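ok so heres the complex, two chains, lmk if somethin looks off
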Amino acid sequence: MDFSSKLLENAVNEVSQLPGIGRRTALRLVLHLLKQPTEQTQQLSESLLRLRETINFCKNCHNISDTQLCEICANPNRDESIICVVEDIRDVMAIENTSQYRGHYHVLGGKISPMDGVGPGDLTITSLVEKVKSGSVKELIFALSSTMEGDTTNFYIYKQIEGNDVATTTIARGISVGDELEYADEVTLGRSILHRIPFESSLKNS
Amino acid sequence: MDFSSKLLENAVNEVSQLPGIGRRTALRLVLHLLKQPTEQTQQLSESLLRLRETINFCKNCHNISDTQLCEICANPNRDESIICVVEDIRDVMAIENTSQYRGHYHVLGGKISPMDGVGPGDLTITSLVEKVKSGSVKELIFALSSTMEGDTTNFYIYKQIEGNDVATTTIARGISVGDELEYADEVTLGRSILHRIPFESSLKNS
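and the predicted structre for the whole thing:
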């Protein structure tokens, strides 16, 4: 693409570095901003800069937070002896939306993935292991996505905390509520048969 | 969505105001920036701000340009007696990419669209009509998209310059090069039959 303006080209180049945004989409977004009042671009730029420069992570669970301790960790009504291990803030938000969980979280910041150059040292595993070793944790719930990387990460943590008096569980995999069996993939359907639960317990949260 | 950080929420709100970007995508983009070095966010913010605040339009053709007169208008080798009327800079870039056009452009900045609150006064039609009335223009090529709004705009301009000694043409509509007839829509195929051209002229630019 040949641009008639160097400024425009720079802006398009920067925007197209975002994941999933190609140069055509970037141009469309930038031209949109040009048609809006200058304030919108100012607010966009400022909000991104302010977030990036003052970003803070909860010192307990490593979730993104404006305060030293995030709202969940600071809430005395939440059970700190149960910790749900998740990849990032989006998973915390998804679980919080269910209103079914009253424990704490531990945000790893990613999954072990040698292909992407992410090793255990890049994640917040050490602080999780320390929490477990301090003896204050009764249950650790693994809620990473069930991919190769997720399973590897789960297993790595499991090995690190082996021998400590802590129960480890993983979220249930199975057919989505409302889904039809015939369209489910074999692995999921197979697991949901293997890990079937007493009918009475299925009545609890329906 | 409940955010654990007000700063994060602000950033997501601002990003999701861009067209075609919902709150989930916005969150994904913002989290991506948080994983990158601070410089990337700084460069992104600065390039958008600098573009928005110092944006300049060519005083002749109204295309985005860093200089008073854009490169095309300033080029003495281009024929200023032929003007191609387009909607925005993307159309200029698309036509320039073909290397088939050596005339000037006139960027309207949109199409007449009462539904979106865009009237003739919001576009650069007055300066186009003045150019035509000055007598320096031999041909006006309408290259707006063939939608209701595009046709309305073409017709409005056509009426404004009626009576002046200027030829008006419109870009050819027809089957795309390489396309198969059976998959073409009826309107396009119909037009390509109606506006058929001598076989010899089709050999020129093949």
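quick notes: Chain A has a mean pLDDT of 91. thats all i got rn
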